[in-house]
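The freezer alarm interrupted the setup, so I double-checked each line after restarting. Inputs confirmed:
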Amino acid sequence: MGIETRLAPNIITANLEKLVNWARAGSMWPLAFGLACCALEMIVTATARYDLARFGMEVMRPSPRQADVLIVAGRLVKKMEPAVVRLYDQMSEPKWVIAMGACASTGGLFDTYAVVQGVDKVLPVDIYIPGCPPRPETLMHGILELHKKVKAEHFRKYA
Amino acid sequence: MTIQPAMTSENNAAVQKLRKQFADDIVEVSTFRNEITAEIRAEALIPICRFLRDDRELQFSFLMDLTSVDYPERRDRFAVVYQLYSLQYNRRLRLKVRVDGDHPSVESVTPVWKGANWLEREVYDLMGVQFRGHPDLRRIVLPDDWEGHPLRKDYPLRGPEG
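Predicted 3D structure, all chains:
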């Protein structure tokens, strides 16, 4: 490019899109929100042993307005559905959704009248994590996959 | 641990008293694993419940649970089940009432035990049995706009939409 040679050595140049995506992926704050047993694995993931802080995600937000990613951890019953959709609607853009575990992804073993057969029926899911429940390693793998996805996003998605 | 003599329906004080007081209203008394069940006529439900609660030698002051059973092959399709407990004497008794399948309805026991309120709402919600005289008979578990009663045996497991 050449421009770097004319700037002071403590200034670097970058593609704005990449820079913003890097920042977004580096500090995705999850909503502190769980529906069933998967929530316990999510909680463990945030503890010192697995240390979600390594990915800049240790701040579980109690308010959807401060959260970037909704981890749907557990089976979603139909009575709960409006509440979860409302939480998602209250999150500000950009926002992402992880369907954690078999139940959130497909309804899992709860193939009944009372359970939503996969949260993708009501929310736009970015990452599906298999498992019943998934171990923290699996959740972290899903999170890293989401980071990859976020780093490849384009601004025009939000235009 | 002392071994107690087997509890039969005949040496049970509550059954003896019921047979004496409400002879025509006792349909059947059975014992299974020391648990006594008295099936009674629905018309006598409230007097019998009041009697069991207020009698000084019985004092079934606690309605532990109220549930229902669906017997799809029977004409009186539903049974409402009352699990009573006497805190005073550490005794239990189960009452059963048969309910018609077309218009299932039974007198509410909320005037006798206030704790029956939510239990009856649950039975109404999931089994569709009406409780006459209930102060607030709304659905309690399912969403308010739900159609049907999912614990009935003819309800499709995956719901009406399949």
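Quick read of the result. The first strand of chain A starts at residue 69 and ends at 73.
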